[in-house]
Each structure stands twice: as C-alpha cells, then as structure tokens.
Amino acid sequence: MSPAQVAAALDAALVVDNSPFLKALVQQIRANDPYGTYRNWADELLLKPYVMPKKQRREIPVEGEVDPLTIGRILGFYRAIAARIEEETGQLSQVVVDLSHEGFGWALIFSGRLILVSKTLRDAQRFGFDTLEKLNAEGEKLVQRGVELAQKYPEVCDI
Amino acid sequence: MSPAQVAAALDAALVVDNSPFLKALVQQIRANDPYGTYRNWADELLLKPYVMPKKQRREIPVEGEVDPLTIGRILGFYRAIAARIEEETGQLSQVVVDLSHEGFGWALIFSGRLILVSKTLRDAQRFGFDTLEKLNAEGEKLVQRGVELAQKYPEVCDI
Known about the structure:
2 copies of one chain form a homodimer.
Chain A: H1 3-17, H2 20-31, H3 43-46, H4 54-58, H5 68-89, E1 94-99, E2 105-111, E3 114-121, H6 132-152, H7 154-157
Antiparallel strand pairs in A: 1-2, 2-3
C-alpha cells in the first residue's frame, strides 16, 4: 500500500469506529458469513461494496434482474437500520424488501402496525453510496426518523 | 349441467352478488385480463381457483417455488382488500407481498405509516379456501379490521 492508501484506510476505519450504524451494518455482514470468509477482514473492507461513485453506478444496466449480491446488500442495509432502532427503542421490528424483477419495489421496516422506515426502491441494481460518509448519513437519518416514530406512536407498535 | 350443478352455480352467484369483498376480488381479476379472455365468464367462475378443499390443497408440494398463478391469486386477494378499505375510508393504500422461494413471507397493506393488514404467509403454494363463503369471511374480516385501524389512527395514515 502507498502512504496515501494507508491514510485512506485509516480514515475509513475511523469513520466506521465512530458510527453505530456502520458498526451495525458490519455485524449484519459478519452474521451472513457462515464459512468465516471475512473473519480476518477489516470492517471498512467489508463495507466497500456499498461504496461506489455515482458515475460507476450509472454504468450498471437496469434492464436485468437485480443481482443476488445486490439484494443481499439492500437487505443488510435495512436490517442494520432495524437493529439500531431496536437498540434505541427496545422495539422489535421486521424488515420486508419487495423487489420486482425490474428493480422497483419497497423496503419497509415495521414494528407491530407502525412502519418505522418506508422507502420506495427504484433502479435497485444500482444500490450504493458515493462515499462511506454518505452511507452512514443515510443510515443514521433513517434510524433517527424510525426512532422518532416509534417513540411518538408506541401504542401502534404494540398492536 | 345437471340440476344440482345449476343450483350450485346459482348459489355461488348469490354469494358473490351479496359480498362487496368478492365483487372487489372479481374486479381485480378482470383488471388483470388484458386480452379479455374472461369477458364472458360469470363472476363465480372467475373465483373458482380460490376455492379448493383442504384435502386437495394438502397435496400441493411446498418444496418448490410458488407458482406465478398462485402469487397472482395472493396479490389479487390482498389488492381486493385494499380496494375495499379504500372504499370505506378514503385512505389510499399499498399492497406488498414478500415471498421467499420456499413459500414463506409477508403480505402487508399499508397507508402512510400505518399497517392496515399484516399477515405472515406460510406454505403459500397452498393458498386457497375451503369454500366461497370462507374466502368471503376471511376477506371481510381483514377489511373490517383494516377499516377500524384506519379510523382509529388517521394521523398515522397521513404521515
């Protein structure tokens, strides 16, 4: 590694260490690693597939089915949000991702009868974030909104 | 048709005529008939694939993927419920059916942040009802519960 690469890796490690959301996401990835392939990988390396510059994402065709690895990444993202909301509120929640073959659909996180996160998905083939910071910001934003809703309508969570 | 068959068909027609839910379900089926194949079919005939004795359903294997026609029937069922709730409450709602390849999953109907209908699906390959009356009763029950929730938490629907 060049000094610049080392510095970038250290920066990324610092971002992960300071983000409860990214740590939750890493946990999701490690939980889906039955053969221990990633055991010795650094956290920030595991998150790399989530980060891709917009230009590169735009080159992914949206005509075909969504790649199973991409679906796995989408699920991991929303499951990490669900895990964080659970940590903050104690509310157990479910994650449902409903994708058509054309990459359109819904990602929902709900607890009882309350939807904590509701996102329409489009061009899911291109799911990804420009930078690690943007991945973190989007995840944290959805966590905060979910926590607010769970706290505002606890009764609807408990139906 | 034998006299008994004629009597059964007339009975079925009467059940459909008296059920807003079954009429909504028929509408769903006709809406998915772009070539007009069913144009001249009686309503009760269109609903026949929903009715299958338990014994016969049990013979359907649950190892394989869920048949696309079965998925279509499941979607039709929940979309008809959504249409009925909309009629009763004026609340627009979304239907999401998330099925794994093993026939497990979720059927959700939601409006804003409120889940009006929440059902776990299992053995979806065997989706069906013993009789037309039971199909109607299950649909109506879910409609009523959904309407109650929409009326109890209108604020959550409007988020």
